[in-house]
Amino acid sequence: VFTDPVLPCGQILAEHLSVPSIFFFRVMPCGLDFEATQCPNPPSYVPRVFTGLTDHMSFLQRVKNLILDIPNYFLCDSVFQPYAKLASEFLQRDVTVLDLWRKASIWLLRLDFVLDYPRPLMPNMIVIGGVNCAYNK
Question: Family assignment (predicted)?
Answer without folding.
Answer: Belongs to the UDP-glycosyltransferase family.
